[in-house]
Amino acid sequence: MTAARSRSCSRMMLPASLLLAQCIAGALHAQDAPGYTHNDFGEIGLLQTPTARMADEGDLAFVATRTYPYTHYNLSLQPLPWMEGTFRYTAVSNRLYGPVGLSGHQSYKDKSIDLKVRLWDETRWWPAVAVGGRDIAGTGLFSSEYVVASKRFGPVDLTLGMAWGNMGARGDIKSPLGWLYSGFDNRAGNTNQQGGEFNTLRYFRGPAAVIGGIEYQTPLDKLRLKVELDGNNYKHQGLNDNLRQRSPVNVALLYRVNRNVDVTVGYERGDTVMATLSLHSNLAQHAEPKKTLDPTPEPVRDVASTPVPAEGPAAFPRKAPGEVDWDELSRALGDNAGIDVSSIGRRGSELVIHGEQRSYFYPSRGLGRAARVLDNRVDNSIDWFTVSSENYGLPVVEDSVHRPRFIDLLDHRIDMQEMRRSVEQNPPAIQPEETLYTKPPKKFDAGVALGYQQSLGGPNAFVLYQFTANGSATYRFNRNLWWDGLVSVNLFNNYDKFTYTAPSLLPRVRTNIRQYLTTSDVTMPNFQITGTHVLAPDLYGMAYAGMLESMYAGAGGEVLYRPYGERWALGVDMNWVRQRGFRQDFALQGYHTVVGNATLYVNTGFHDVTLAMSVGRYLAKDYGATLDISREFSNGVRMGAYATLTNKSGKQTGEGSFDKGIYFSIPFDLLLPRSSTSRATFMWQPLLRDGGARLNRRYSLYEMTSDRDTDLFEKNLEKIAE
């Protein structure tokens, strides 16, 4: 996966609508307009037609549209300023999913993926131009390609372009690409019988149609008018579901409820009412709520604008390092700065706090709070404060602040730009250090939380869900060796509808998921012992054994080389695993194998995009490669996608052809009034199949050492004063 802050990392499977509701809850009061709006298919566009416009980078939208017989549920992401991706489920209400005995009267569901790329942006004289494809890797029900140009003239945004495939089914123009190669004159039939593969033999082929229209900003700020020329005549629809079209002109009114909610009502095909609800929020610009549940930062006595309380650390004399009450200071660092202290040392005039950050997502905020605590207790023989961050016993990075300059910043004698020269990040030091204090780790920890999991788009029901009560426990033998486990108790679900087991020509390493989900109401998804060790400078190691995930037990290990200051890392993991019993207790089945991957991680520096490229052996004993591409924004929000191709054919893999998915991850810190290092992660995986299946390891060294990527610290340095 991608670069991540791994401390207390929580990976939660949430429906898109629920997660979006959390994201936009703090922004619904604002009334300013979004720059561009979404079409029926979730793209930035008119109604059926996309435009060359893009949302702001970091934008996330959930768009639901009803135009008989189609109901589109779209999830649209804007990971880059010039790239838009949309993922969709479509319900076709006048077609059944399958036999009544299997799917009842559930309507047919289609999955599709879109991609749009802007070639260049609008200038004074030239329009913005974009090229894109709809349903580029699905069953081809809505397969289309297009080129569009958009130009604004005051309140009117004009779009004109050309479309092929379903979007251009009117076919009144011979393909302009035919003069390059005669093959472009004809559009082949659907060559993708399994779904999920890229239909490259169909792209930009066959007759085309002119598409376009206008979006008019009316004198009423909240109201926009959309009028378009539809390139589809609906005479060549998939599933033999051809429709009547009385007019190729579609028209609609969009009402902007607020900056996060749009409602569109219109008329399409000359006789059909359409309605759209669009929920959208810019995750990259999402500001954290006020941390009302966090402890108040300790006041600093040398800051004139800060009142010094009559009681407390700031009211008492500072002490030399040899006289400090280290137990009290350690507790204060834990309570106010979120640091679980392991030891405290001294290097001349530098005081070093070794420990793990448990509360604050942004390292600079934890450093600033720690500096306040230390300044109130230690005399002026110390002029540098350093927090040596550890994670699961692994030293990762050292963050240091110059004490006098930090006080100058708090007293507004210097600004943040000047302060940057007095803050350092370095690899864990190997120079001699006088140990002043050592704290044993907390041996046992436990907790209870609610859990949710779901499966979308299956033949038994569109949404299969389960709510659980999860109890977790951890026992630490030392900071580098621990046991943890998880017990899950079913609260309620609709798995009584789950009767379908997907066909497979490979060993059933994932497609027997139904049995794992329905056999027992009490399960033990995880029960393992884990150890970590620093093997050499920049070289980390980890070993583990036990019930590694809900379907597999075994033993394995990982080694990661991650040189400090570099934007790349190389990791290797190897695991022997055996399939667990369906009740998810200690019982095992006969199937076993060896799996492992070598993974190269590269932070490209281009729009903060990270590539994770893996090669290795997967659970079905197939060999292949996985590519994961993600974008992380300055506030920690992440958007990404992955795909796995192996030596097994699409026919052997079955429906979906190969494993793939998209995800976005939001720090809880952006959602809650209390600081947190955890994340909410939404993963959309169209189909769970046996080909390319990876072991779901609980821990990853790359995530454990995520603080070696200094971008989050540097881009949020201003939080050191909070």
Question: TL;DR of this structure?
Answer:
By secondary structure, the protein is mainly beta. Helices cover 10% and strands 43% of the residues.
- Percent of sequence in beta strands: 35-45%
* Spatial sequence of strands, sheet with the most strands: 19-20-21-22-23-24-25-26-27-28-29-30-31
Please tell me how large the radius of gyration is: 28 Å
Main sheet properties: 13 strands, antiparallel
Annotation, overall tally of beta strands: 31
Q: Helix segment count? A: 10
Structure overview:
With 722 residues, the protein is mainly β. It is 10% helix and 43% strand. The chain has a 13-stranded antiparallel beta sheet, with no helix packed on it. α3 (326-337) runs antiparallel to α4 (363-375). The protein is globular and about 90 Å long.
Secondary-structure map:
Elements: H1 16-24, E1 59-67, E2 70-80, E3 83-96, H2 100-103, E4 107-120, E5 128-134, E6 144-153, E7 156-165, E8 208-217, E9 223-229, E10 249-258, E11 261-268, E12 272-282, H3 326-337, E13 339-347, E14 350-357, H4 363-375, E15 384-391, E16 394-402, H5 403-410, H6 416-419, E17 423-426, E18 434-438, E19 444-456, E20 463-478, E21 481-493, H7 513-518, E22 522-536, E23 539-547, E24 552-561, E25 568-580, E26 588-603, E27 609-617, E28 623-632, E29 638-646, H8 650-653, E30 659-667, E31 679-684, H9 701-704, H10 711-715
Parallel strand pairs: 14-15
Antiparallel strand pairs: 1-2, 1-12, 2-3, 3-4, 4-5, 5-6, 6-7, 7-8, 8-9, 9-10, 10-11, 11-12, 13-14, 13-18, 15-16, 16-17, 19-20, 20-21, 21-22, 22-23, 23-24, 24-25, 25-26, 26-27, 27-28, 28-29, 29-30, 30-31
